[in-house]
Design goal:
heterodimer; A: 302 residues; mainly alpha; 73% helix; B: mainly alpha; two-stranded antiparallel sheet; 5 strands; 4% strand
Chain lengths: 302, 660
């Protein structure tokens, strides 16, 4: 239990670090020096010290959005295993609650965006729900494929039971699941090729445009939630791709953390070498993720 | 049983008392609504007692009607369906008392209360009756009472049209039920349910019975493509009636289905597949059509179709679990489906009350004409938000609990060996899609109506509704939160219900039940953590911002200098990417007058999404039938003496046939 709490605290503290790595990787590919690795920590500290500007149009939903979103992603993080180590809370069916907590976070972000009455933010909200509609089945079917493969119904049990032998037995299935989860990861975290977190053209943005009006501590909560979401969805992919158990919590933890860094570098590379897809093409990408999940299920049921 | 009979008597009595005092709108409303509230409270006592491990109660008196008897019984399944009937009826009566006051002096309110009370009474009898004739009579009274309520504003052509569609659809359904009972009565001296001796029948007869039941009851429940009356009737009825019809009356279809099927013994495997197929099509198409609607109550009506689909998914998972001898899967499926019956009554009742409140003060149900209502009507807004989050299946509310049970059952069923796995995976994928779409749809409904700036003068005129309407909404919202946070307790009432619904023995159910509902403890724990955390973060934010200069300004909007209310995103534009993506199913009609020339003056854009089943299936079919039957027009002259002659000839023919 102490180990689980410790792991949870590591997640809470280390989450913003990964985004630093992504940005550094992107800078490397662009031939720039790039921001410091700890840039997001500085940003958070600065935002928390600031005051806020709040639109007259808005009501309590506007600040409830970031607050509820952060609480939801916190709870979701409690259920995600740290590598092969059990999560803080693990029970049969926790993967359903996990997905729905992320849904709760999205719902509140969307209505907080609509609260400003801005056309831009409405546009972002509209796109966010459109892509979520397709990302949700992909995530659920991917997780269903994992339960079928391992025979467990809790994220902790599923991920603890994955080993290299599983890859030997069902390599193609796991590869397909990992690919589907990666696409879901990119879409849910608003990464290229679905969304560009760095763009400054409001008309093309999705997530960033929804939070245009938030400032100060509210915006800090949003940035931090995004970092946490990046981490916890990343954990689902990393342990699937590197199911190594060394037998001792410390080396296991170090291995897991370095795999997370590798994932961040990978995301940075994807963002550097790919262009953002046209908005009308994004649903096709998400349908590919659904197709991967279904294909994995077919391979298992054969 | 005496209390139930007392409650029934009181319902009828207060209904007629309301009719008699029609001259005074205040008294008629008081008598009608307090009669319902009182009898619902009385009726709740035995229902709760039976659910809490009490023995089933019976009451029977013989009747002169052939095949009929006044045979009623209160077992756990009946009591379970009575629970939402009594709770929502009482709250709808309270709400209606204030809501109908707007019509006082303009229209006689006595008939409204008579039919409202009769509707409640007929639903009670439907759930209790154990005789086919009594059941059909109550079913018919239920249909007629709700028909007169739907056509309350009969000066409007739309209401009359909705009423006709409802009446025709309901009677087509009843025709199938009639056939069902005729088949069941074959070789029996009476239609008492306990005399059905069915497990001995051949497989194909059972198949025919199941099909008749699914069409007959499915018409009332609103399975696609039998749902066409819902989006017409719900918006036309007064809001407390729509709430009652959508919240509990359509569940009578589900009740009938579960009850009748429970007499058929071992069921064929395809039955579970059929229900899952129905659930998927109703769930997904229901929410898609909801997404494309501009009328708030029409949107909610389509969501009823969606939620009936979710209930069918749960039952389908349950029946498949039974067919493949997976008691855990069966218990999870039935528990989820049945709990969703209660949950849907809570949040859909709440949402229709909210829609009624908004329409009441603004005079419009057009989502795109509203906006900014949360500030003007905070009670309605907050309770509507709770209902919206609950219907979207979001934790920590009640909708998530029932959907979780269905999901969990499907996950369990998918990883068991057998060909049911495919259906279970379809349930998982389908529920995920439905959940995403429902969440999008209610982000739209809540966001466009209650947030942002008012788009028209209608919205600017909004103000909070009186306490008589607020209290029912607040109670239902509390119910949504309560069932969500008290999930392990809420599912306990199902222990007595499941043996009746599934046919499994009580020990078997007691054996798997703890494993089935164990995760709910964790869910409640995390829900509590979620709420505590949100509160803590709120306090933290509050502490940080106190003492700092928090500026109030216009919406920044990337520096746009003069944003106007009309520039906001509308419901149509919000839903457009999704309705465009699923355009194949929706067939939305667009009408665009694009601005042209160097100094364009005016432009217009309009979308309309008619029901494809109405347009492409029912309307052509009805037109064909009408054309065929109009060949028989010569038969009808409008001369009374000829009609009497027809009656005499018919009676003579029957007499000759009987004497033969």
């Amino acid at each position: 239990m102490i180990a689980a709490w410790l792991n949870f605290l590591i997640v809470l503290f280390a989450a913003p670090f990964l985004l630093g790595i992504v940005n550094r990787t992107k800078a490397f590919f662009a031939g720039r020096r790039g921001p410091p690795l700890l840039q997001l920590y500085y940003d958070l500290a600065k935002l928390l010290r600031k005051s806020a500007v709040i639109s007259r149009t808005t009501g309590f939903i506007f600040w409830l959005g970031p607050v509820a979103g952060l609480a939801a992603v916190f709870c979701a993080a409690m259920m995600v295993p740290f590598g092969n180590a059990r999560a803080l809370v693990a029970f049969n069916g926790d993967l359903i609650l996990f997905a729905y907590l992320l849904g709760l976070m999205r719902f509140f972000t969307v209505i907080a965006a609509l609260d400003t009455g801005s056309a831009f933010e409405g546009m972002g909200a509209s796109r966010e729900v459109q892509f979520a509609v397709l990302a949700e089945p992909a995530l659920f079917l991917g997780l269903a494929a994992l339960t079928l493969q391992t025979g467990h119904f809790s994220l902790s049990d599923i991920y603890a039971s994955l080993t290299w032998e599983t890859w030997g037995k069902a390599g193609p299935t796991l590869a397909l699941i990992a690919a589907a989860l990666l696409i879901v990861f990119l879409a849910e975290n608003c990464r290229v090729p679905v969304d560009d977190p760095k763009t400054h053209l409001e008309l093309t943005m999705i997530h960033e445009v929804m939070v245009l009006d938030h400032s100060g501590p509210d915006f800090a909560a949003i940035l931090y939630s995004a970092a946490l979401k990046f981490w916890i969805l990343g954990m689902l992919i990393v342990r699937l791709a590197v199911p190594v158990t060394l037998g001792h919590p410390l080396p296991d933890g170090i291995l897991f953390l370095s795999s997370m860094v590798v994932l961040a570098v990978l995301i940075g590379i994807i963002e550097s070498v790919m262009a953002r897809l046209r908005l009308t093409k994004v649903p096709q990408l998400l349908i590919v993720a659904i197709a991967f999940s279904i294909l994995a299920l077919i391979l298992e049921m054969r | 049983m005496n209390l139930i009979l007392l409650s029934l008597g009181l319902l009828c009595l207060s209904g007629f008392a309301a009719l008699v005092t029609s001259a005074s709108p205040r008294w008629t409303s008081r008598l009608g609504s307090w009669g319902v509230i009182l009898s619902c409270v009385i009726g709740l006592v035995p229902a709760v007692k039976v659910l809490g491990d009490g023995p089933a109660q019976f009451f029977k008196i013989p009747w002169g009607i052939p095949l009929g008897s006044f045979d009623i019984a209160l077992d756990a399944l009946s009591a379970f369906f009575l629970l939402p009937v009594f709770v929502l009826s009482a709250l709808a009566a309270l709400y209606g008392q204030t809501y109908m006051a707007a019509w006082a002096g303009k229209k006689p309110l006595g008939p409204v209360w008579l039919f409202f009370n009769l509707l409640v009474a007929s639903m009670v009898v439907v759930t209790l009756s154990r005789n086919g004739i009594l059941f059909l009579m109550a079913w018919e009274i239920m249909t007629l009472a709700s028909f007169f309520l739907v056509t309350f504003e009969d000066e409007r052509a739309g209401s009359r049209r909705a009423g006709w569609i409802y009446l025709v659809a309901a009677h087509i359904g009843t025709a199938f039920l009639l056939a069902l009972f005729v088949m069941l009565s074959h070789g029996n001296p009476s239609l008492d349910f306990d005399r059905f001796n069915l497990p001995a029948m051949p497989e194909y007869v059972k198949g025919i019975l199941l099909i008749l039941a699914v069409i007959g009851f499915g018409t009332k429940a609103g399975f696609i493509p039998l749902h066409v009356w819902l989006p017409e009737a719900h918006p036309a009825a007064p809001s407390h009636v729509s709430s009652l019809m959508s919240g509990v009356m359509i569940k009578m279809g589900i009740y009938g289905l579960v009850r009748m099927v429970s007499y058929l013994g071992v069921l064929p495997v395809w039955w579970g597949w059929l229900l899952i197929g129905i659930g998927l099509s109703s769930g997904i198409l229901g929410v898609l059509f909801a997404l494309a609607q501009h009328d708030l109550k029409r949107l909610l009506a389509y969501h009823s179709v969606e939620n009936i689909g979710i209930i069918a998914l749960g039952l389908g998972v349950g029946y498949l679990g039974l067919a493949y001898q997976l008691p855990l899967v069966a218990v999870l499926g039935f528990a989820g489906g049945l709990l969703h019956v209660i949950n849907h009554a809570l949040f859909k009742g709440l949402l229709f009350f909210g829609a009624g409140a908004v329409a009441h003060v603004t005079g419009t149900r057009e989502i795109d004409s509203l906006g900014g209502c949360l500030k003007r009507m905070p009670w309605t807004g907050v309770t509507f938000l709770i209902g919206a989050a609950a219907i979207a299946g979001l934790p920590p509310l009640n909708g998530f609990v029932s959907e979780f049970l269905i999901y969990f059952g499907a996950f369990r069923g998918a990883s068991s060996d057998g060909s049911q796995a495919l259906a279970m995976l379809a349930v998982i994928g389908g529920l995920a899609l439905i959940g995403g779409l429902a969440s999008a749809c209610f982000a739209k409904a809540f966001g466009i109506i209650f947030l942002g700036e008012p788009r028209t003068d209608h919205a600017r005129a909004a103000h909070e509704v009186p306490y008589g309407m607020r209290i029912p909404m607040a109670l239902l919202a509390a119910g949504c939160v309560g069932v969500g946070l008290g999930a392990p307790l809420a599912v306990k009432i199902l222990i007595q219900v499941l043996p009746v619904a599934t046919g499994l023995s009580l020990p078997v159910i007691r054996g798997v039940f703890p494993e089935a509902v164990h995760p709910l403890n964790f869910i409640v724990l995390l829900s509590a953590v979620l709420i505590a955390l949100a509160f803590f973060i709120f306090l933290l934010r509050h502490a940080m911002l106190t003492g700092r200069h928090v500026q109030k300004a216009g919406t920044w909007d990337c520096g746009y200098a003069k944003p106007g209310a009309r520039m906001q995103y509308t419901a149509s534009s919000f839903a457009d990417p999704l309705t465009g993506f699923f355009g194949f199913f929706l067939r939305t009609r667009r009408h665009l007058d694009a601005p042209s020339g160097f100094f364009p003056k005016e432009a217009a854009f309009e979308t309309k999404t008619p029901d494809i089943f109405m347009e492409n299936l029912h309307r052509p079919a009805v037109e064909k039938i009408y054309a065929g039957l109009s060949k028989l027009r010569w038969f009808q002259h409008g001369r009374l003496q000829l009609y009497i002659l027809y009656i005499v000839i018919t009676l003579l023919a029957l007499l000759v046939w009987k004497m033969r």
